[in-house]
Design a protein that fits this description.
Largest interface: A-B, 25 and 30 residues
Radius of gyration of chain A: 21 Å
Low-confidence stretches of chain B: 98-105
Strand order of the largest sheet of chain B: 3-4-5-6
Helix content of chain A: 25-40%
Distance between the termini of chain A: 32 Å
Shape of chain B: globular
Largest sheet of chain A: 8 strands, mixed
Structural class of chain A: alpha/beta
Oligomer: heterodimer
Mean pLDDT of chain B: 88
């Protein structure tokens, strides 16, 4: 793999940047792999990378029906944070956060991770009580967090309407300074390039149409474009399409797929240097390095696979953002899109083995999967390498929907992306 | 945006008047005390979530405030039928969850 550096950049400038190596190969799939990962989004690519890097398993294929990172990895609002309430979730997301902090160096690819902090606003007394509880829980788990009052929030974000007359008065906020944003596409590309360099085959335009089983164990997949590919173990990391894949082996999951929307404005000069989220009004906003305001919304209430959402959801979100930031009233929106998120009843993911041997699922990340990309890939790689679910992922087993040991993160995950 | 026919109000109304309430035709176990944890968990949490035809409940929140069923395609978003609680859809026989039909793939 060609290493990226500022020296390389200078060197290639001399040849007008026409001599760069391709970032990854475009291989023809082999007949058999030790591990087949279905889904070439951030989580799938991260899984492949850590399988090769940490566990030395390089006979791995990532099968992607479209192009790499073209699903929810390309459609989220890029927020990264780890301020979850319950121990199980906090440990998992903090594991991810620690990987984020060294990710660009690890991958030799600038993922533009910017720890600009995340504010979660409180608009009423109950919001503030919940914030106090969550921040206290975070700190007990070694996760940074502060409770800010109105004045401190105003100092951080002068353009936020913190006045008494505000439609949604700001009573305070939780503040995680280590949180921030990352360049979503770069995360997929960085993992893809690094995984490819370690020998992982990234197969694009390869749709899995069936999963083959024998004596209760998964033995391989049937693909539309390349026929049968056998595998020692199969990991499904397909977000909104998880139920469709599970159905191939007669498995039903506690998931519902919903459209989730986001939008960006035209690029404007730097005006917002942090991330502002509000559960109560269901909106979150940050400004990208390019200058566009990145705004996220709530999910549509109905099930859908259409990768588009309802207009009234956009309207609702924009109304909320404008109440918080009246200054944005004349900013024009540029693009809007939808992704399909697989929501779980407890707003926590499923990282689990299944009744089918050698078949594993990593799904149910719902509205907040992007922030977990490195951690999710890391623990899922360990799970696929050993055939035993990683310690951090154990509480997220499918089994919890039988035992009732749910991890209710609706409070922290409410509008989280 | 959907224009949904409410079988009680007997007219098409905007999606904003309604709330989607998830999969329809889920029967509550007759004797919950006799359920295993797995059976009860399945009743509470496990859903068909098909890519295609889906029988679902909708609630006419700011209209008649009644629940009814909608047979809708989750990929094309075409609404095939709306019908009252306790009824069966008239148009599509292979609808999931209806008349013990096997779930669609």
């Amino acid at each position: 793999m060609q290493s990226y550096s500022s020296f390389g950049l200078l060197k290639h400038a001399l040849s007008y940047h026409e001599q760069w190596q391709r970032a990854w190969r475009n291989p023809t799939p082999k007949k058999h792999y030790d591990v087949v990962i279905v889904g070439g989004g951030g989580h799938g690519l991260a899984t492949a990378y850590y399988l090769a890097k940490v566990h030395g398993i390089t006979n791995v294929a990532v099968l992607e029906k479209g192009y790499l990172g073209g699903g929810n990895t390309a459609r989220n609002t890029t927020i990264v944070r780890s301020n979850y309430l319950w121990d199980e979730a906090a440990h998992l997301y903090e594991h991810s956060m620690k990987l984020w902090e060294g990710l660009s160096q690890d991958l030799n690819f600038n993922v533009m991770f910017s720890q600009r902090g995340v504010l979660n606003l409180g608009h009423n007394l109950q919001d503030m009580r919940d914030i106090q509880r969550r921040v206290a829980a975070n700190r007990l788990n070694g996760i940074d967090g502060e409770i800010l009052d109105t004045r401190q929030v105003q100092e951080l974000v002068p353009i936020l309407d913190c006045s008494q007359q505000a439609r949604f008065p700001v009573l305070g906020a939780s503040w995680q300074p280590r949180a921030g944003v990352a360049r979503h596409d770069a995360v997929a590309w960085g993992y893809a390039r690094a995984a490819d360099a370690l020998g992982v085959d990234l197969i694009q335009q390869c749709e899995v149409i069936d999963i083959e089983t024998e004596d209760g164990a998964a033995t391989g997949v049937i693909t539309k474009q390349h026929g049968r590919i056998t595998a020692g173990r199969i990991g499904c990391v397909v977000a909104g399409n998880s139920s469709v894949l599970a159905n191939m082996v007669g498995l039903k999951l506690p998931l519902e797929s919903h459209p989730l929307q986001a939008m960006v404005s035209e690029p404007i000069k730097p005006i917002l240097d942090t991330v502002v989220m509000s559960n109560a009004v269901h909106g979150y906003i940050s400004q990208s390095d390019k200058g566009d305001l990145v705004i996220g919304a709530g999910i549509d209430g109905y099930n859908g696979y259409g990768q588009r959402g309802s207009y009234h959801t956009i309207e609702h979100t924009v109304q909320a953002i404008l109440e918080l930031f009246p200054i944005f009233s004349r900013v024009r929106m540029n693009r809007q899109w939808g992704g399909i998120v697989d929501t779980c009843p407890d707003a926590c993911p499923i990282i689990s083995d299944t009744p089918v041997e050698n078949l594993f699922f990593n799904c149910g990340w719902g509205t907040g999967g992007f922030k977990a990309t490195p951690g999710s890939g890391h623990v899922f790689a360990a799970t696929l390498a050993k055939g035993v679910v990683h310690e951090l992922a154990k509480p997220f087993s499918l089994n919890r929907f039988k035992t009732g040991a749910l991890i209710d993160e609706h409070g922290a995950a409410g509008v989280a992306h | 945006m959907f224009s949904i026919y409410c079988p009680y109000c007997e007219e098409h109304r905007s999606e904003e008047e309604f709330h989607a309430k998830g999969q329809a035709h889920i029967a509550r176990p007759e004797d919950p005390d006799q359920c295993t944890d797995a059976q009860w968990g399945e009743f509470l949490y496990v859903r068909d979530n098909p890519k295609g035809l889906h029988s679902e409940q909708w609630y006419h929140a700011v209209g008649c405030r009644k629940f009814f069923n909608v047979l809708r395609d989750t990929q094309s978003y075409v609404i095939h039928d709306t019908y009252k609680v306790g009824e069966q859809p008239s148009s599509v026989s292979e609808a999931p969850g209806v008349s013990q039909a096997k779930s669609t793939s």
